[in-house]
């Protein structure tokens, strides 16, 4: 595949419903955002790999002053989620309140055209998450 390993490539995969990250063929590190050179060892032997959409919350915060494009979502929870291979990605945790979040909580990356980034994170009971907020006003 002809790819320059750009953020646009990443967004394109997300739009196709694929969670793809860049993997280094020399040191085996995986990373996002994409770069044409491995940030760990400087190698150019890179390829796209699809990884599991299940990740673990490593940090989170409530945002009241939204980024451009996210105005309709404020206030919202932004979490940094760590995936397979140590890949970390920030995103909105859809339908969550700050009290629902905790470090180490498993979340699922869900593709959505409603999200300016093309995806949300969701808390699902199937992953051991707490989701008692549904059905409440
Ligand atoms: Zn490398």
Task: List its traits.
137 residues, mainly beta, OB fold (Dihydrolipoamide Acetyltransferase, E2P), 2 domains, five-stranded antiparallel β-sheet, three-stranded antiparallel β-sheet, 1 helix, 7% helix, disordered C terminus, binds zinc ion
Would you summarize the structure shown here?
This protein is mainly β. The protein has one helix spanning 7-15, and strands spanning 20-24, 30-31, 46-50, 54-63, 76-82, 88-93, 106-111, 119-122.
Mean pLDDT: 89
Largest sheet: 5 strands, antiparallel
Q: Going across the major beta sheet, what is the strand order? A: 6-5-4-7-8
CATH fold naming of the largest domain = OB fold (Dihydrolipoamide Acetyltransferase, E2P)
CATH class wording of the largest domain: Mainly Beta
In terms of DSSP E residues, the strand content is: 25-35%
> What structural category do the secondary elements indicate?
mainly beta
Bound molecule kinds, no repeats: zinc ion
Number of domains: 2
- Runs in which pLDDT lies below 50 for 5 or more consecutive residues are 131-137
Helix content: under 10%
User: How many H/I helical runs?
Assistant: 1
Radius of gyration from the alpha-carbon trace, in angstroms: 16 Å
User: What is the succession of H and E elements?
Assistant: HEEEEEEEE
Distance between the termini: 48 Å
| CATH A-level architecture of the largest domain | Beta Barrel
What overall form do the CA principal axes indicate? globular
Secondary structure tally: strands: 8
């Amino acid at each position: 595949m002809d790819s320059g390993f750009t953020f646009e490539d990443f967004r394109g995969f997300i739009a196709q419903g694929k969670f793809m990250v860049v993997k280094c063929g020399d040191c085996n590190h995986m990373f996002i955002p994409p770069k044409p050179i491995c940030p760990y060892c400087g190698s150019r032997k890179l390829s796209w790999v699809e990884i599991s959409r299940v990740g673990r919350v490593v940090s989170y915060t409530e945002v009241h002053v939204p980024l451009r494009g996210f105005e309709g979502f404020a206030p919202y929870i932004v979490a940094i989620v760590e995936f397979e291979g140590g890949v970390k990605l920030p995103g909105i945790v859809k339908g969550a309140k700050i009290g629902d979040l905790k470090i180490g909580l498993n979340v699922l990356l869900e593709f959505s055209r409603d999200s300016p980034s093309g995806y949300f994170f969701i808390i699902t009971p199937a992953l051991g998450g707490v989701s008692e907020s549904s059905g409440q006003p």
